[in-house]
Amino acid sequence: SKKLEINREQRALMKAIVDAYNRHQIPEDVAKKLLQDQYSPEENFLLLTEMATSQVQVLVEFTKNIPGFLSLDREDQIALLKGSAVEAMFLRSAQVFSRKMPTEHTDVLEERVRKSGIPDEFMTPMFNFYKSIGELHMVQEEQAILTAITILTPDRPYVKDPQAVERLQETMLDVLRKLCVLQHPQEQQYFARLLGRLTELRTLSHYHSEMLASWRMNDHKFTPLLCEIWDVQ
Ligand SMILES: O=C(NC1CCCCC1)[C@H]([C@@H]1CCCCO1)n1c(-c2ccc(Cl)cc2)nc2cc(F)c(Cl)cc21
Predict the structure, then answer these.
(1) What string of DSSP letters covers 178-214?
(2) Residue 4 — left, alpha, or beta (φ > 0 → left; ψ -120 to 50 → alpha)?
(3) Could you tell me the distance, in angstroms and rounded to a whole number, from the CA of residue 93 to the centre of ligand 1?
(4) What are the pLDDT tens digits along the chain (233 aa)?
(5) How many A from CA of 104 to the centre of ligand 1?
């Protein structure tokens, strides 16, 4: 039916988002590194800060390709990036964790992250989220649009014109809803489950600064970009 069909404009929007998403991937495959070796808490923390710094730079490039984003107020663009960077990092970590790989690799990866230096009390919420993302078996279009929807969240701190952000987010939500029905016709509530993960993601992201501060090591060093983007140091 017309209502459900992805129209030409939405197809162009989706192509722009997915192309940008694929162009802006983390250069270094952190999963491969973790599968190769066991690292000390210090080395893992350094790996995380390096990966996260590179991911923020990648996220900025991706966001600039979201149709309409550059037409937003300049300060609101910054507020949206700053407000979504931690969530985007956990979402990307979950997508990396959920990549199709042999079970023993997933088990090693889980073990390495569990033993990376993060206090145990954060492991349950973190892996619950990673596994709930994995169970969705998102196609890359869904992953890309879900990341765009996370960035275009109107109620981030200091956003002056949330309505303008809401209009962009609604456009993305429309495309995602149709895509979910097309890609997962058997699962009635797939779209609702997908959006439910964004709530779980926001909750997990609240632990972020505490996870970093209590990393089993002394003297946590961050890059200048992460000091800007993460509320640390
Ligand atoms: O570097 C990571 N993630 C990057 C971030 C940028 C985008 C690409 C993925 C981290 C590091 C790797 C070294 C050990 C500690 O976790 N990481 C986290 C994680 C993220 C936030 C905090 Cl506070 C703690 C851990 N969860 C992961 C799950 C995974 F499957 C893999 Cl491979 C790595 C994962």
Answers:
(1) HHHHHH-TT-TTHHHHHHHHHHHHHHHHHTHHHHHHT
(2) alpha
(3) 5
(4) 667 889 999 999 999 999 989 886 765 588 889 999 999 999 999 999 999 999 999 899 999 999 999 999 999 999 999 999 999 999 999 999 998 899 999 999 999 999 999 999 999 999 999 999 999 999 999 999 999 999 999 999 999 999 999 999 999 999 999 999 999 999 989 999 999 999 999 999 999 989 998 988 888 899 999 999 987 87
(5) 18
Q: Please report where in the chains the tokens 């599968």 appear, as a residue.
A: 35
Between the CA of 48 and the centroid of ligand 1 the distance, in Å, is: 6
CA of 60 to the centre of ligand 1 (A): 19
Among 44, 48, 84, the mutation site with the greatest number of ligand 1 atoms within 8 A of its Cβ is: 48
Residues 173 and 149: beta-carbon distance below 8 Å = yes
* ipTM of the prediction: 0.98
**Substitution candidate for ligand 1 out of 96, 105, 214, 231 with most atoms within 8 A of CB:** 96
